[in-house]
Structure formats: structure tokens, C-alpha cells
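Lab notebook, entry 432. We have the chain sequence and a SMILES string for adenosine-5'-triphosphate, and the next step in the workflow is to get a structural model of the bound complex before anyone spends time on docking refinements. Request logged below.

Task: model protein plus adenosine-5'-triphosphate, output C-alpha cells.
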Amino acid sequence: MGGGSARSALTLASRTLRTRCVTYLPATSASLQLLEAKSLTGRPENGSSSGGDQHIFSKDSWQTLLTFAAAGLMAFTGSSFSVAAGAPVLTEDETAENAGRASFKSTNPRVIFVLGGPGSGKGTQCAKIVDSYGFVHLSAGDLLRAEINSGSENGTMIQNTIKEGKIVPSEVTVRLLQKAMEECNSNNFLIDGFPRNEENRAVFEHVTGIEPEFILFFDCPEEEMEKRILSRNQGREDDNLETIRKRFKVFLDSTVPVVNHYETTGKVRKINATRSVDDVFDMVQPLFKHFVQDDLLWATEELLRGIDTGDYSTYQRLCHPKLTAFEPEAQGQLVEGLDFHKFYFDLGKALKSSSGTHGPAVQSTIVAPKVVLLGTNAGVVTYTRLQQIPSSPKAGHTSAHNETRVWERQKNDAGEWEWKHIHFHRSAAPTT
Ligand SMILES: Nc1ncnc2c1ncn2[C@@H]1O[C@H](COP(=O)(O)OP(=O)(O)OP(=O)(O)O)[C@@H](O)[C@H]1O
Ligand SMILES: Nc1ccn([C@H]2C[C@H](O)[C@@H](COP(=O)(O)O)O2)c(=O)n1
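Result returned:
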């Protein structure tokens, strides 16, 4: 499982760890950091002989920071993955509850507002982003149309407002969006056609407290949008020339000021939407790749937390049943499947219950992570893992391993994207 020795498994199973809040300090002195990194990791590429441009930390000061922070070598505000000793032990029920949660659902949803004139291609591009990047698409217009069709008490008011090309009162739209987000087992949302005006923006912010990651803005001339809408053929009541013209005016008068507001915060990502659907998507994709990388790192952190806490259900949920691995425990053999790894979880549990130990927790820190995507559905994460092991072989001992973990993104039975761990390689990191 990549969790170390049976002794460490005992400690892993004895406490459950909690991730600390993360803050990064801007690093300022690369040369000093490089010098100290050498003394910490002993990586030859960190030495002066390999030259300042070749070492792994030189381009990413935050990665360097992680290294020093992990070693307590500098003023420290966190690491990409650090766990607090002394966190409460989870009950069996709590562990089971964690296991049932969606991988990336947290209290901090990732929201992207998608704006652009009527017919600029928002819905079309959102569908492609959903397909490739696993976001949930919430179209404010679709939610309002569904509300009309549901026969709700607001239905007639919404219908008349839409027919007029006007904007529905914000509390109605925000309530629908909030409900849809809550019902969704995801943390990544594309909110399309919203906020349509300043009031939409203010009410959403007030009610949800969510700040968008960025605003994806499709820029398209009116003639092109008009042409597209008139040949859309979806039977929409507002796709007639008279209403289209009104919608264009509302867009200019009410939505463009919202875009301008976000311009001042540097959050607008403007895309030229006049080209073909595929060309436009090519311009959109770079804005989403780093989310996939973040999620992959997050999945890796969750996996390590599962290992450190002896939480086999988390491990099993994140791993493909045919996971393959090279690790020191396997004596140079490639092992396949989860049984080999489960042994250490079971052993840790058994040792814990026989000794009744409640020592401090094992603490894993990921140092210098690199995430390489292979398309949008596979990726490789490499890093050095520092494990602070309270009891083995001597109190406070730190072990260092280099780990390479390969992940594949698959759709589960509910049609949701999930990362599955399919292969790893773990070796002792050189310490001199
Ligand atoms: N880049 C494009 N080139 C040509 N046609 C496009 C392009 N993008 C979308 N379309 C077509 O234009 C029409 C409008 O696109 P879409 O429904 O995605 O726009 P929208 O911005 O979501 O519109 P609305 O705000 O009215 O809901 C659709 O018929 C779609 O197939
Ligand atoms: N935030 C919103 C979004 C949409 N509407 C109404 C008014 C729009 O003309 C209509 C259709 O929206 P679309 O599908 O074009 O995004 O829905 C609103 O009032 N407030």
C-alpha cells in the first residue's frame, strides 16, 4: 500500500489525521533555499554542481517552500499536505461516512460563471467542458424553464419575464441555483447565463458566500449570435426576432456591466467565440487543465491520508481493484490487486487493538509534487513523501520515499467522473 512497515501501520491505524489549512509564503531567496534543500533531501540535482537552472525547485518557489517547511527550516505556514497530530480518532461510523462521500465534494465549491450574449455558444461549450473536465453544468435559463414546466407558483411570472426578454428576480434564480448545487454530488460547477445583472451577482454572493474562480466570457458579434439563435431550432419561446433584440439590449445594459466589474478584479477570461465550435473549445481548454491537475493532487493527498489513518475503505474507493505496484515490501515483484496492501491495514488494526496504543499520529508531507497529464483522463503524480513516524525506529523518525502514482479518470455508475489509482512505484529516497 505504500504505507511503510508494520510498526508504522500500527501507528497509522491508531489515530486519524486531519488536513491543516494551507497557506503559502512567497519564497524570495532561491539560492539560500537551494542550499538548504540539498541538506534536507540529499538529492544530487539540488546540489550546486548541477547548476542553478537544473534543480527541481528552481522554477517553483512554492515547491521549495514546501521542502523547507516540511523540515522546519524556515518560517512556516503550511504544506500542500500536512496533517495535524493529536486530531480526534474517528469512530467506525465517521470513517464509513467519509468513505461514502464524493471524492472532491467539500464545503468550498469551485464555481465558474459563463457569460456571453444570447447565442454566443455558452451552452455548447459548457457541454464540451462537462465531457472533458467533469464539471457540472448549471444553466440559469434551463433551471428557470424547468421551473415553468414544473407548474410552480412562480411559473407564470418567470414565463412572462422570459418572453419579454427581461431578467427574473434574483432571489428566484439564486434559490434554484443553490438548490441544484446542493443536490449535486460535485464540487465543480459551470454556472451558465449567470449573473445576468448586478443584482444577480450581489444576491448570489450574499446568499452563498461563493466567489467565482473566473468568468468565462464568450465574445461574439450580434449578427453572428442572431444568425445562430434563429437557426437553433429548439422550440424556445424567446428565440424570435423581437425577443432576441430585447435580449441583446438587456445583455448590453445589464450583463456587460457585470463583466466590467469582474474585469477590475482580473477574473475575466475572454474567448473569441466567432470561430467554429472546436476552435473555440481549443481556446477554452487551457483554462481548465490546472483544475484536473489540482484534483489529481487532491486525490493523491486523500489516498495518503487514507493510508496514514489506516482507513482501508478510502483506499479501496480510490484504487482500481487491479492496482499494480512496485514497492519495497513486495521485494522487487510487481504485485497486482488490493489484497497485498489490505494486509497492512488489517495488521495495523490488529496490533492497535492488541496493544491499545493511542500514540501520536504518523504525518505525511508531500514534497515537490509534479503532476503530468496524459490527455484529460490520465495522469502521473510524482513526489517525495516524508513520513514522520512517532515510534519507529526511534521517536520522531522521518522516512523519505519517492513515489510515482498513475491515475485514470473513469465514469462511475452514476455517470460521475472519478479518479482511480491504477499503478504506483515507491522506492526509498536517497538521504545522503
Ligand atoms: N462556435 C459556433 N459556431 C457555430 N454555431 C455555434 C457555435 N457555438 C454554438 N453554435 C450554435 O449556435 C446556437 C446557440 O448556441 P448555444 O445554445 O450554445 O448558445 P447560448 O450562448 O447558450 O445561448 P442562450 O444564451 O440563448 O442560451 C446553437 O444552435 C449552437 O449549435
Ligand atoms: N440569470 C438569469 C438567466 C436567465 N434568465 C432568463 C432570461 C433569459 O432571457 C432567459 C433565457 O436564458 P438563457 O437560456 O438564454 O441563458 O432566462 C434570467 O432571468 N436570469
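Notes for the group: The radius of gyration is 26 Å. Worth checking against the assay data. The first helix runs from residue 6 to 14.
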